[in-house]
Amino acid sequence: MRISELCDVSGVPLPSIKYYLREGLLPPGERTAANQADYGQQHVQRLKLVRALLEVGGLPVATAQRVIQAIDDDELPLTYVFGVAQYAISDGRVFDEVESGAGLETVDDLVDERGWTVSADNPGRFGAARVLDALDSLGHGHIAEYLPQYAEAAETIARADLATLGHHDDRADMAENVVVGTVLGDTLIQSLRRLAQENESNRRYPVGENQ
Amino acid sequence: MRISELCDVSGVPLPSIKYYLREGLLPPGERTAANQADYGQQHVQRLKLVRALLEVGGLPVATAQRVIQAIDDDELPLTYVFGVAQYAISDGRVFDEVESGAGLETVDDLVDERGWTVSADNPGRFGAARVLDALDSLGHGHIAEYLPQYAEAAETIARADLATLGHHDDRADMAENVVVGTVLGDTLIQSLRRLAQENESNRRYPVGENQ
What we know:
Chains A, B: Residues 1-70 form the HTH merR-type domain. Chains A, B: This is MerR family transcriptional regulator. The structure is a homodimer. In chain A, 65% of the residues lie in helices and 3% in strands. By secondary structure, chain A is mainly α. Chain A has 2 domains: 1-56, Multidrug-efflux Transporter Regulator, Chain: A, Domain 2 (Orthogonal Bundle), CATH 1.10.1660; 61-204, no CATH class. Chain A has a two-stranded antiparallel ribbon with strand order 1-2. The longest helix of chain A is centred in the C-terminal third of the chain and has 34 residues, at 171-204. The first copy, chain A, is elongated and about 65 Å long. The termini of chain A are far apart. Chains A and B meet through α3, α5, α6, α7 and α8 of A and α3, α5, α6, α7 and α8 of B.
């Protein structure tokens, strides 16, 4: 199909499609004439992925680019696709390397207790350390006493995350599942936490009773 | 103490302190002369909170302002502080109201199955619905089969969230705990998920074996 048809079929405006082509988020169509190219079903599918990563996952364009490259790189083992997705969406803020401190020690102790095999540069190690240091400095260090419960929940989540991959036997599908599950999964978990919090809060502190 | 001393004690640069005062993130000091005010320990503590919300929690200034107002409003029941924290950090993107659709039905069924008591306008309801619709349109609808596991993890998290409140008996401390736990807790959970994912991925797909 021509680019105008791709636009109709996908519902994505033409300027956005052209932008994604320029930024390498969408592979070029097959050239059929000097200024004409042919697009297929894989372009429709890719557009859906790009929109979901940007709009539902909230990724910046440069980050979406990186994870899409990881999906397309057939040579990249799946474990590394996880790594790329994790690093990409952990951009900036709190996930930069932390060298030392009480928070990092607590995280490393937790990793030992749970028997987790993780690399020293996993961004989650730094993110968790920064949160623990901030909680401590704010006088809410007692929240760290619940780390085993939070870690247990993280294990339940990670087991489900990995189990979803069993539905595919094609590497490209699995790689896309890794990226989609990691990026949209964060939003899903945040959402379910909001619901469960309201339920638990209503149960413990019914409105109208003494606060 | 004078503002210059507050600057030294807290380590927050003077222009930032002045900005927070202007934006209402920091309450004014006690005026001691025409152009001089006195700041106390509560200002040092509040500066730590502001920095943690902005830098570790990644909140925009306007959002930090809203949750701080909720902490300071003694009349606001705790359940509502949860609500304000949830709504504030769920700003924009995927948490706007969704009117109908398969995703929303799936979320409502899940809420029924778990026996959760939640309001119809909980932002998590819309966020989860949007993620489920996006997964379905991407051909990864099978991820929804693991909703019970994700919901179980969310319950574990929410029980821990609420249990942390038991450490306080002062309303202001509890309200601050609610905000800090909700905002920094999201970052903590994301971080632990990264660690648990790498562990589970290493276990299931050891590098070097066939991918």
